[in-house]
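Lay summary. Proteins are chains of building blocks that fold into shapes, and those shapes determine what they do. In this project we predict the shape from the chain. Here is one chain we studied, written as its sequence of building blocks.
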Amino acid sequence: MKSRIQELAQTYFEEIKSIREHLHMHPELSFEENETSAYLKQKLESWGIKVDREWVKTGFSVVIDSGKEGPTIALRADLDALPIQEQNEVDYKSQNEGLMHACGHDVHASCLMGAVRVLNDVKEHFSGKIIAFFQAGEEKLPGGASLMIKEGIMDHYKPQAMIAQHVYPEMPVGKLGFREGKYMASADEIYLTVKGKGGHAALPHTTVDPIVISASILQELQKVSSRIAPPTLPTVLSFGKIQGLGATNVIPSEVKIEGTLRTMNEEWRAKFHEKIEEICHSTAKMMGGECEVDIRKGYPFLVNDERTTRVCKSAAEELHSAENIEDLDLRMTAEDFAYFSQHCPVCFYRLGVRNEAKGIVHSVHHPQFDIDENALKIGTESMAFLALKLIDSINR
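And here is the predicted shape, written in a compact code that computers can read:
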């Protein structure tokens, strides 16, 4: 079966590559993936594969039914792009101004399309069902995964395990990465509005300076992660935007601050939210101002099921050899696939796409992000082979 999967992935490689290039040329933002969805559905129809149901505006699912009694597992890919102006000069460069597949979702969708076609060709060789989830809106709160779950996708299919892969530009093409247990962080968005009393910068005694208040708030908040957070618990608090529309001689009336909180423990996450509220309000009040706090709870942290991940890692070693399989470190980025991990055992693994000889070295969310397209064959055969091994392990 291994050689058959590899043979089929090679047979369909050029078509999968053309799908990826089409998607890359026509990126769409979260929950607006109308053309993306229509294109993929048309392609599936041309292969004689039917879409089973639609989910959350532009998402959809496909069922590969062996016709034999057995477990159900799911495979997932995301569809949305980012508001980034592409700087690559390639034939498949984005044609949509200001939009780019800079996080590899075009790769994820293309590989899942390839895996669907391969698995459909070999469905007589497994027992059970394999469901493909094509998901909208991974990049935007509340996350398409959470909305699919609210619409009932997990209750409808009841998968006993689930797999997803994600591009990893830090890893050379030809390699895959796995980690059991906690892997990716929760992510919350923090919006602060610090209010004071504006005035002339030469007369600070007549003002309540929100810039100085903001500086004090930011310093105090950093002490939470450095002095209150348990040192064994990964925690990141970062602020990436401070806006105080004054001037060299003008103290503004308010300052807006935006940031993110990342961690891997729900109890500590809730406690940190309380600390943010407490520090912002008390510091501003002490200095004569006030602070409005808006914490938008984002994705939960992602936990890879140990057994599921071991089965998938072992399958990857069988497919690609052990020297091409790496262990991953904890990562403080976030993924809405974490919502699925709260409903069934999952394995979220990484697909190497880096090729330094070709200059393919840029990280995700960079305007020059790209992949070695050989990763598409590896991603296709990996999803298909891991799915077969996983469903077989549950059958046993």
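What the prediction tells us: The first helix runs from residue 2 to 11.
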